[in-house]
Amino acid sequence: KALDNHRMRKLSFAFFLVLVVGGGLVIGYLTAPGAWYSQLEKPAFNPPAWVFAPVWTALYFMIAIAGWRIWRAEPSSISIRLWWAQLVLNFSWSPVFFSLHQIGLALIVIVLLLLTIIAFMISTRRMDKIATSLFAPYLAWVAFAAVLNSAIYTLN
What we know:
Layout: H1 2-30, H2 35-38, H3 52-73, H4 78-99, H5 103-124, H6 129-134, H7 136-155
Helix pairs in contact: 1-3, 1-4, 4-5, 5-7
C-alpha cells in the first residue's frame, strides 16, 4: 500500500508538471509573437524577447508544484478551483493577445488572472505556505505583465 501511495504521488506530480509546463510551452510555441507584435509600439520597459521563455518556464514549474501540493491536501477545495481558474486564464492570455490581436480583451484576461492569483494566495496562506510562496514570483511577473499589456494597449 505504501508503494502504491508513493507511485500515485509520483504520477500525480508528473501529471501536474506535464499539464502546466508542457501546456504552457505548447501554447507559447503556437502563439509566438510574430510580425503583428513586432510592429506594435511598446514602452521603454518592454523586456527583450529572450527573457520570456526562461521566466515562464520557471514560473510554470512553480505553478505546477503549488497546484499539486494543494490538490494532494484538499482536492475539492476552493483553493484548487482557484488554481484551475488561474491556469485557464493563464493559458487563454497568449491566444487572445498574440493570435486574436485583442490587446484590450487580453488586458481584461490578465487583470482577472491577477485577481485569481491573489485569491489563490489568500485561500492557501493557512493551508500551505509553500504553495502560497511559490505563487509570489508569479504574482509579481503577472502584475508586471499587466502593466506592460496596459501600456501596449495605450500606445496602440
